[in-house]
Amino acid sequence: MTGLESEGSQVRRAVCPGSFDPITNGHLDIIARASRLYDEVYVAVMINQSKKGLFAIEERIDLIGRVTAEYGNVRVESFHGLLVDFCKEREIPAIVKGLRAVSDFDYELQMAQMNNGLSGVETLFMPTNPTYSFLSSSLVKEVATWGGDVSHLVPPLVHDALADRLRRN
């Protein structure tokens, strides 16, 4: 046993939810930091039937799995419906969310309060690394669509997949 374990101790689990279309270095920063704080981190990739993503859900799961493989304690799964149900099914007591700006906090606080009220799941807010404070998947897609260089905003594997997808579209 390590110093963190004791007989009968529970595995500390958290989830990082999002659409990740595509995953950015900002997302990856939050996931990496959460993976150092928790025994298991689930990356829950949201399925939104009303929204057509650039990447199919299976492609996003594959890309995220590949760029988070080095952490060893990160699992990537899709979910549809309420995040609290995803958490309940996997005995996950905590949601980890990155906050870029005060404007994110207003919406995320309401979601955190609703999730806690529905199921008791706690939300932990992690401030985004200032390097990524402006970054979003939507912005990456828009800049890349117009030929802008986003190679410093996404992992190399994701950059290649993004460039390939935009060439074919």
TrEMBL record:
Residues reported in the UniProt entry to bind ATP: 19-20, 27, 98-100, 108, 132-138
Biological process terms from the Gene Ontology for this record are: coenzyme A biosynthetic process
Q: What does the record give as cofactor?
A: Mg(2+)
- What Pfam families does the record point to? CTP_transf_like
Q: Where in the cell is it found?
A: Cytoplasm
Q: List the catalysed reactions.
A: (R)-4'-phosphopantetheine + ATP + H(+) = 3'-dephospho-CoA + diphosphate
Any one GO MF term held by the record is: ATP binding
**Record-marked site positions (Transition state stabilizer):** 27
Enzyme class, one word? transferase
Where in the numbering of this chain does the Cytidyltransferase-like domain appear?
Answer: 15-142
Q: Which residues bind substrate?
A: 19, 51, 83, 97
- EC number(s) per entry: 2.7.7.3
CC terms in the record's Gene Ontology section: cytoplasm
Keyword Mitochondrion annotated: no
**Pathway where it operates:** Cofactor biosynthesis; coenzyme A biosynthesis; CoA from (R)-pantothenate: step 4/5
Q: Which InterPro entries match?
A: Cyt_trans-like, PPAT, Rossmann-like_a/b/a_fold
Record keywords, A-Z = ATP-binding, Coenzyme A biosynthesis, Cytoplasm, Magnesium, Nucleotide-binding, Nucleotidyltransferase, Transferase
Q: Which domain of life is it from?
A: Bacteria
Question: What the protein does?
Answer: Reversibly transfers an adenylyl group from ATP to 4'-phosphopantetheine, yielding dephospho-CoA (dPCoA) and pyrophosphate.
Q: Family, per the entry? A: Belongs to the bacterial CoaD family.
Subunit note: Homohexamer.
Name this polypeptide is given? Phosphopantetheine adenylyltransferase
